[in-house]
Amino acid sequence: MTLRDTADSNVLLSEDLEPHRRELTGYCYRMLGSIFEADDAVQETMLRAWRGSDGFEGRSGVRSWLYRIATNVCLDVLRGRQRRARPMDMGPSATADSSLGPMLPEHTWVEPVPDARVLPDNGDPAELAVARETVRLAFVTALQHLPARQRAVLILREVLRWHATEVAELLETSVASVNSALQRARATLAARNIDTASHSQPVAADKQTLLARYVDAFERYDITSLVSLLRDDAVMSMPPYALWLRGPGEMSRFFLGQGIGCQGSRLVATSANGCAAFGCYHPVGQGRYEPWAIQVIEVTSDRIVGHHNFLDTNLFAVFGLPDRLPPVSA
């Protein structure tokens, strides 16, 4: 069913609602930490808006009205639910020869999101840089530590730059309550050393050179070259496993040990959570390559600081990546 399947009597039509889908997806993703849940929440928001459009009286704009509905949908989803996390939040780093442990269920993890699904495709470069920071995996994970209403307040006030009076109206509360919730939310993020300020990033040309060197080293499986691109405190994670590693030495031993199955893989570029990302395809014989993981590569200065591998092949369709790669031409 599409939102265009509306009766002529409806006040709002799909052309009134659909332009807001991307920003609503970004909002719901930050609230829920899952692109699958965010998509469901946005679709539910659109359906509720369509069904209730006869009652829309226009006292607030369509955008504000949709955010009110989306917030209520997200609060319903979050009621009584365990927060999502990253492996780094679940215990100390392991060694390369440690057991991977059990595969934990999907709802355990903060999931990656394609930039194209949540970030504007144009606009002021400074504003785009801030928007990228607010979908970083670390930031979205930190948001999961906030109570649901505090989470909504912080996103609306700090990320989307709504006025306190607007947030109070949306949440049907007082400005004093909004300001108090924002203060508590800021304190929680500060305790986790998280803020929305843009972090140091290499210039575009340097970043692209670094990523090209990474792709070359990974596809040739030149682990010496690969780990030379890592900062000393770089981390690697592999949801749905809780195991994570810190430092070039442990990552090198992993790639040459129990991670040797990555040898011969191919990478297809994409972007996720404001970072470079790749669809990683493993060889499966007869020259064929099948999806294995979405890699999110975090870069600071001139080194890689995060190598996050999401071993959920359902994500490939979300990122618009092919379900297999053909053999390499001779």
Topology readout:
Elements: H1 14-17, H2 21-32, H3 35-51, H4 62-78, H5 115-118, H6 125-133, H7 137-143, H8 148-159, H9 164-171, H10 175-191, H11 204-220, H12 223-227, E1 230-237, E2 244-246, H13 248-256, E3 266-272, E4 275-285, E5 288-300, E6 303-310, H14 315-318
Parallel strand pairs: 1-6
Antiparallel strand pairs: 1-2, 3-4, 4-5, 5-6
Q: How would you characterize this protein structure?
A:
This protein is of the alpha+beta class. It is built from 14 helices and six strands. It folds into two domains: 14-191, PhyR, sigma-like (SL) domain (Butyryl-CoA Dehydrogenase, subunit A, domain 3); 204-318, Nuclear Transport Factor 2, Chain: A. The longest helix is centred in the N-terminal third of the chain and has 17 residues, at 35-51. It is globular.
In short:
The chain is of the alpha+beta class and 330 residues long. 43% of the residues lie in helices and 15% in strands.
List keywords for this structure.
disordered N terminus, 330 residues, 2 domains, globular, single chain, Nuclear Transport Factor 2, Chain: A, Butyryl-CoA Dehydrogenase, subunit A, domain 3, 14 helices
CATH superfamily of the largest domain: PhyR, sigma-like (SL) domain
β-strand amount? 15-25%
Largest sheet: 6 strands, mixed
Category from helices, strands and their pairing: alpha+beta
- Name the assembly state: single chain
Helix count, DSSP H or I runs of 4 or more residues: 14
Helical fraction = 40-55%
